[in-house]
């Protein structure tokens, strides 16, 4: 079943070469605006004298176009092109470190221009569907790039400056709620859902609405809770039981894990390596351990496959390996399964990140893990050196009989538990001196480096907590809709999709789609009831806003200071109370402000209190200099008048001289 959608904006995107030309022009503008490295405050200030309306107009001029239609066509890719220019500057900053400050400021200038353009666009449909959600291509070195939109580029580049602006976040909010959806005809295009203002329940009782990221996130949170229950069920069966005998809890847990693996593989296939992130690797580690446990359970009692594995490992390591004692009993599979508990429980956090507390905490964890890579690289190199030194000392007597002891002691040293007694009788005095040096390097130097890296990462995230959280929610929203899928079967329900997919080879497209719709009506029936109730209630608010010519997402919060924004869903008492307050304020003439006939007239008079003058902002001058500019203007007028008087006097003298 297809959804009714709005196709009010139909603009063909510029071709790849035209997009490249626009990006080159925009780069020239930014190069001229920031010719040399300047103070950072002049770039990132809200009233920056560099990022002005003059620069914005030049950006629109750079897009070209001779007619109104062609201008809208080419200007639609301006945000995409500015983000492309940002990526160019970031690459230059990495390649040319001596000018990294200049290129960093230019990259930020390009992002600030994109923000100014986004926030200055008054046509929200054009902004959402053309500027941000439409995918464009660009010709780079003779190769046409994969189609991208500005949303994806900003998130992939982690451009928090662009992501945190109001227009970008409103677009993400509309996608999160399902007001902007993928086109049924072309999954790479985004269109408006046309029934956001329809209060009828059955209009929203549609399995296609399950594609909405908000509902997918809720479903996956529920599934994750069930996954913990299934894991606990499987684990509480115990490890001592006959080999390869399956219990119900194990079957449910392994089946759910298989569905998650299929879902990850599908999204990785559609999106590519850009889909991978720290938390994907975290999940895949869990799935890998569970898969190994599953394989051991299946093949653990069969000698032949294990003998083959022994031979392969022995050849690879050039030594005799015997893995049969480790995997030939059911206890090993159970123990591996027990080791998954921290992963299974931590997985719940990934679907709670829509709340600010959990979101920022996950961002902090991710940044700390990224920063720790530097530490582990240094640690691996240092440990490799000391390990080889200790092994050389062990071989000095012609025997290598202390390998396990050396490895254990080095690991304990890394964990801040050095064991000095182990080296008292080991190649004295060389081993003890070497171990003192090793302990100092690891415990004093490297661990303090790790603490400093963690402190820097934590401080950076906390200083930009709101922007980082907004970037996380935007990434999560696109995570749900970036991989096109005609029929959304949330894991573990995607197992059903795998079962019915072969029928698409024998059924017509319409028949197969009808079958999938029928299945989704059945499996999502309770969910669709909740969706229908929620969206029909929300539709009344949208219809109320449209009657007032307000944006669809307006009046969601009843502000106490605004007596005209309230929307009360059927609450007659609240409506009557609001009307009474408005009437009381209107019927008190003694309360009017002296010298003003109406409240609106007085509010207009407040504009003179704003120090941020439009005129100075347009010519790129800070508002603090406005008084000086006014004096200069006055002086200029006086000089012009004086010049005119002098010219008149000269003309009169010349005339008198000529007459004589």
UniProtKB/TrEMBL annotation:
- Per UniProt, residues of the YVC1 N-terminal linker helical domain are 20-205
Transmembrane stretches, start-end: 218-236, 281-300, 334-352, 373-391, 433-454
Coiled-coil parts of chain: 632-659
Which ranges carry the Calcium channel YVC1-like C-terminal transmembrane domain? 247-545
Q: Which GO terms describe its molecular function?
A: calcium channel activity
Keywords of the record: Coiled coil, Membrane, Transmembrane, Transmembrane helix
One GO cellular component from the entry? plasma membrane
A Gene Ontology annotation in the biological process aspect, one of them, is: calcium ion import across plasma membrane
Q: Which Pfam families match?
A: LHD_TRPY1, YVC1_C
Specify the protein name: YALI0E24211p
Q: What is the source species?
A: Yarrowia lipolytica (strain CLIB 122 / E 150) (Yeast)
């Amino acid at each position: 079943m297809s959804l009714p959608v709005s196709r009010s904006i139909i603009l063909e995107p510029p071709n790849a070469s035209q997009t490249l030309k626009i990006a080159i022009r925009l780069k020239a503008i930014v190069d001229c605006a920031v010719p040399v490295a300047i103070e950072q405050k002049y770039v990132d200030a809200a009233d920056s004298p560099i990022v002005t309306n003059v620069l914005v107009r030049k950006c629109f001029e750079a897009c070209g176009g001779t007619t109104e239609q062609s201008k809208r066509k080419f200007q639609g890719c301006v945000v995409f092109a500015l983000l492309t220019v940002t990526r160019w500057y970031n690459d230059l900053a990495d390649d040319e470190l001596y000018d990294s400050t200049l290129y960093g400021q230019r990259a930020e200038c390009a992002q600030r221009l994109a923000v100014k353009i986004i926030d200055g666009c008054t046509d929200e449909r054009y902004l959402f569907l053309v500027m941000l959600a439409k995918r464009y291509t660009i010709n780079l070195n003779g190769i046409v790039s994969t189609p991208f939109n500005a949303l994806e580029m900003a998130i992939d580049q982690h451009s928090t400056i662009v992501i945190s602006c109001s227009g970008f976040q409103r677009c993400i909010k509309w996608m999160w709620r399902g007001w902007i959806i993928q086109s049924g005809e072309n999954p790479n295009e985004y269109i408006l859902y046309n029934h956001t203002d329809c209060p009828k329940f059955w209009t929203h009782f549609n399995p296609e609405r399950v594609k909405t990221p908000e509902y997918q996130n809720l479903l996956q949170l529920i599934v994750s809770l069930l996954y913990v229950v299934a894991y606990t069920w499987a684990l509480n069966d115990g490890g001592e039981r006959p080999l390869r005998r399956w219990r119900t809890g194990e079957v449910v847990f392994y089946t759910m894990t298989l569905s998650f693996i299929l879902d990850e593989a599908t999204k990785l296939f559609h999106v590519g390596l850009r889909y991978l992130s720290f938390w994907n690797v975290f999940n895949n580690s869990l799935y890998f351990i569970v898969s190994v446990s599953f394989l051991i359970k299946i093949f653990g009692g069969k000698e032949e496959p294990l003998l083959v594995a022994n031979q392969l490992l022995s050849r690879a390591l050039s030594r005799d390996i015997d893995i049969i004692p480790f995997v030939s009993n059911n206890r090993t599979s159970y123990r591996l399964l027990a080791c998954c508990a921290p992963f299974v429980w931590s997985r719940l956090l990934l679907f709670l990140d829509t709340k600010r507390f959990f979101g920022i905490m996950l961002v902090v964890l991710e940044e700390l893990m990224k920063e720790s890579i530097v530490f582990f690289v240094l640690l691996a190199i240092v440990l490799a050196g000391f390990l080889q030194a200790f092994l050389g000392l062990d071989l000095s007597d012609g025997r290598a009989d202390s390998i396990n002891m050396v490895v254990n002691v080095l690991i304990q040293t890394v964990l801040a538990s050095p064991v000095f007694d182990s080296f008292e009788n080991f190649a004295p005095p060389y081993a003890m001196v070497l171990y003192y040096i090793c302990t100092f390097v690891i415990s004093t130097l490297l661990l303090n480096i790790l603490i400093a890296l963690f402190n820097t990462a934590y401080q950076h995230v906390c200083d930009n907590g709101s922007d980082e959280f907004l970037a996380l929610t935007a990434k999560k929203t696109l995570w749900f809709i970036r991989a096109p899928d005609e029929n959304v079967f949330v894991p573990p329900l995607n197992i059903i999709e795998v079962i019915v997919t072969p029928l698409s080879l024998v059924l017509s497209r319409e028949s197969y789609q009808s079958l999938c719709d029928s299945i989704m009506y059945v499996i999502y029936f309770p969910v669709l009831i909740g969706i229908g109730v929620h969206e029909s209630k929300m539709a009344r608010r949208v219809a109320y806003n449209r009657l007032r010519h307000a944006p669809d997402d307006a009046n969601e919060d009843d502000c106490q200071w605004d007596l005209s924004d309230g929307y009360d869903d059927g609450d007659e008492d609240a409506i009557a109370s609001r009307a009474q307050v408005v009437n009381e304020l209107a019927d008190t003439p003694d309360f009017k402000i002296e010298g003003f006939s109406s409240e609106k007239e007085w509010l207009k008079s407040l504009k003179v209190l704003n120090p941020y003058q439009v005129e100075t902002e347009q010519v790129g001058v800070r508002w603090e200099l406005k008084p000086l500019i006014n004096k200069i203007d006055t002086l200029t007028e006086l000089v012009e008048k004086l010049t005119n008087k002098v010219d008149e006097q000269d003309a009169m003298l010349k005339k008198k001289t000529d007459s004589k």
